[in-house]
Prior knowledge:
Layout: E1 7-13, H1 16-27, E2 34-40, E3 59-65, H2 76-91, E4 97-100, E5 104-107, E6 110-122, E7 125-135, H3 152-156, H4 162-181, H5 185-194, E8 202-207, E9 210-219, E10 225-229, E11 234-237, E12 243-244
Parallel strand pairs: 1-2
Antiparallel strand pairs: 2-3, 3-7, 4-5, 5-6, 6-7, 8-9, 8-12, 9-10, 10-11
The structure holds biotin.
Amino acid sequence: MIIGTYVRHCEKVSSTNTVAAAMIRDQAPAEGTVITASYQDSGRGQQGNSWESEPGKNLLMSVILYPVMVSPAEQFIISRMISLAVHDLVAGHSQAARIKWPNDIYVGDDKIAGILIENSIMGDTLATTVAGIGLNVNQEIFRSGAPNPVSLRQVTGRELDLGAVTGDLIAALDRRYDMVIRGEAATLEREYHKALYRAGEWHRFSDDTGEFEGMIEMVMPDGMLSVRKREGVSRLYAFREIDYIL
Ligand code: BTN
């Protein structure tokens, strides 16, 4: 076991990712160290967004990894494995769990978890990863104006034990990270595609050319999304170059 041998719980922090980064800078924490919090007053999301979470209701976690076996060109494998671990957990509660590229976790058309991965690179390998995970567990009212939030409580119709959910997620993360260590990239890729939201079906999207109908074909090893347009050819997209019409 690597992930979760040391777990530090904080009642209130700015952001568990910020705490993890400070620990890496000052304390040489063991690989797999997990930081959890009951509340963040400056929770961070992707693209400079904030992350809403009512005190004590949800899972707020950052994991410290040293994935020196991963080259910068392959770093999307970290996104795949963290997404799959969160998906494993959510799929245990709902068959409608999916991974929305690149690393949101959805139930149906609603977002139940977000992931913020912050890597540092040294030479030709990753040196450090802080993988921040926000999973909505028992929150029922969302105020921030996020378009489509949902929680496990809302999906299952019952209140969940946050400690048990945290333990289950740590176990899933450890199992998925072990696959990275063992070089099981092809299996991670296959399972990520199996769980991919809206893959292999015609749906509406928009890009810099406007709205169109397209089909997600695959996510490339470098994390680019390949989408075939019904009228036209396939195109590769980086994060934020394409929007899903929900
Ligand atoms: C997203 O925008 O979808 C990513 C959200 C990531 C939120 C988690 S909560 C724990 C960790 N600490 C943070 O400040 N952010 C991540």
